[in-house]
């Protein structure tokens, strides 16, 4: 996926509202999608100051939890999908270190997508780790789109 595709995709991902119950629904959607395809992933949904949902599915590893945290931190910092941050950095021949961000805490690999609410902006981030970065990203986007289509949101 290139920068233009990622920007256009992200522009479409806005929810009417998002709270703890919506986080639980999104988490369940992502778990169901991952289990249906036997994907060994960690799923994490958080705000800047608390975890709303976290699951480690069969086949995932502790390193996936670390990657999820680092990718989430980048999405929260830049208020953009971590894959888009990574693509922009690569296009500019830059790294997160240029922004003073340590690799122990931040990663610009794909898989973390901000949750935006109409009129409120970014309120949380949903992250998947365990697959190649583009596949992590696509799984999160599928989950957000399914939540957007849900009559309860």
Write the layout of secondary structure elements.
Blueprint: H1 3-11, E1 14-15, H2 20-36, E2 42-46, E3 51-56, H3 62-78, H4 82-92, E4 112-117, E5 121-129, H5 133-149
Taken together, the total number of domains comes to 1
Order of secondary-structure elements:
HEHEEHHEEH
Strands, count:
5
Q: What would you say the CATH architecture is? A: 2-Layer Sandwich
Give the overall shape, derived from the CA principal axes: globular
N-C termini distance: 28 Å
Looking at CATH, the homologous superfamily is: Haem-degrading domain
List the strand order in the largest sheet: 1-4-5-2-3
Oligomer: single chain
Backbone CA Rg: 14 Å
Q: Helical percent range?
A: 40-55%
State mean pLDDT (0 to 100 scale): 96
Largest sheet: 5 strands, mixed
Structure classification = alpha+beta
- Beta-strand residue percentage: 15-25%
- CATH topology-level fold name: Beta-Lactamase
CATH top-level class? Alpha Beta
- Unreliable stretches covering 5 or more consecutive residues: none
Number of helices: 5
Describe the structure in your own words:
The chain is an alpha+beta fold and 153 residues long. The protein has a single domain, classed as Beta-Lactamase (2-Layer Sandwich), CATH 3.30.450. 46% of the residues lie in helices and 18% in strands. The chain has 5 helices and 5 strands; from the N terminus they run H-E-H-E-E-H-H-E-E-H. The chain has a 5-stranded mixed β-sheet with strand order 1-4-5-2-3. The longest helix is centred in the N-terminal third of the chain and has 17 residues. The two termini are 28 Å apart. The relative contact order is 0.22.
